[in-house]
Design goal:
- The protein is an alpha/beta fold.
- The chain folds into 2 domains: 201 residues, Rossmann fold (3-Layer(aba) Sandwich); 79 residues, Putative methyltransferase TM0872, insert domain (DNA polymerase, domain 1, Orthogonal Bundle).
- 39% of the residues lie in helices and 11% in strands.
- It is built from 13 helices and 7 strands.
- It has a 7-stranded mixed β-sheet with strand order 3-2-1-4-5-7-6, sandwiched between helices.
- Strand 2, helix 3 and strand 3 form a beta-alpha-beta unit.
- Helix 1 crosses helix 2, helix 7 packs across helix 8 and helix 8 packs across helix 9.
- The longest helix is centred in the C-terminal third of the chain and has 15 residues.
- The protein is globular and about 65 Å long.
- The structure holds S-adenosylmethionine.
- S-adenosylmethionine binds next to helix 2, strand 2 and helix 11.
Length: 334
Amino acid sequence: MRVATAVRPAPHEPVMAERVVALLAVAGRRPGLLVDATVGAGGHALALLAASSADTRLVAFDRDADALDLARTRLSAHADRVTFVHAGHDRLTEYVAPVVAREGPVLGVLYDLGASSMQLDRPERGFSFRATAPLDMRMDADAALTAAEVVNGRSVEELTRIIRWYGEERFARRIAQAVVAARPLRTTTELAGVVERAVPAATRRPGLHPATRTFQALRIEVNGELERLRSSLPQALGLVAPPGAEGRGGRVAVLSYHSLEDRIVKRSFAEATTGCVCPPDLPVCACGRSPLATALTRGAERPGAAEVAGNPRARAARLRAVERTAAAPHRGRG
Ligand SMILES: C[S@@+](CC[C@H](N)C(=O)[O-])C[C@H]1O[C@@H](n2cnc3c(N)ncnc32)[C@H](O)[C@@H]1O
C-alpha cells in the first residue's frame, strides 16, 4: 500500500531512506514486526510501513514525547499497525519481547541516531546556540540531568573530557576553563559566547560556529547517547528473528552521524559477525561459536552527493546493517 507522505514539506527529511527501505521493508515475507528505535518525525517509519505488507506492525520508540506526538500524527493512516513507546531504546527487550509474543517475530530494527531537526530547530529545547534559551538539551523532558547542570556542576577535567571526546574539539581544555571561569551560565547564547571567545579566531572554520562541537558534546553527555546505544545494540541483535521459511533473517540497520557512535556500531556488528573466538594456536575449535549475523553493508555506506546537497543533515551519515543467522545467540559476549 502506498501512502502520500505529506502535503506540507516533511519537518525532518529522512536520511538514505531508499536504502533503509531496501534493507528493512517487509513485503511478501512472513508477517512480523519492525522496530523504529528512534522514530523522530516518523519519516523512515512512514516509508517502511508504506513499503511493507499490511500485516507488518511497527513498534516506534522515542525518548522525546513531542517527537512521538508528531510521529503519531504523521503515521495516523497506519495507526492500527503502530505501537508507540515513550522510552529509550536501551529498554528495547523490555518493550518489544511482549509484542513479539502477540504479533510475531522481529524482522527489522532501525536506529537513526542523534537529534532531529525539530529538536535543533525549537529554541526552547536549548539544543541550539542560535536563540537564547535555558541550557536544557534533554531529549526526554522527564530526565533529571540538564545541560545547565553539566555546564555549571562539572570540574574543568570532566568538561574537558566531555568536550574533547564527544565534541572532537581540539580546544576542549581552553573552553572548559573559560566555562568554569564564567559560571554560572544560564542560557545557550551565554555559553556560545564564552566558547566563541575561548576558541582562537585564526582557527575558525567558515560556516562552522565555534560552539557547534561543544553543544554537540553536551547533548551527547546530557542524554547518555553512547551508553544507551552500547546497551541497546546487543538487545536488537538478540531480538531479531533467525531466518524463516523464506530464508531471510531479521535485520538491524543503524544510521550514525558521529565517529564515536559509528565505532560502537562497528564493534557491536563485528562481534556479532564473528564466529570462532578460540585462540589461534588451538588445533580445533573448542568454543563452537557461529556468527550470529552476517554483514549487509561493506564497511559503512554513505549518502550520495545529490542527497547531501539537498539535505545537509545527511553529510555525516554512515549506514551499517547486518542480518541474523540461524545461530543461537552468543552467551556472555553479546
Ligand atoms: C534523527 S531523529 C530520527 C528521525 C526519523 N528517523 C525520521 O525519519 O523522522 C532521532 C530521534 O531519536 C530520538 N532518540 C535519541 N536517542 C534516543 C534513545 N536512546 N532512545 C529513543 N529515542 C532516542 C530523538 O529524540 C530523535 O527524535
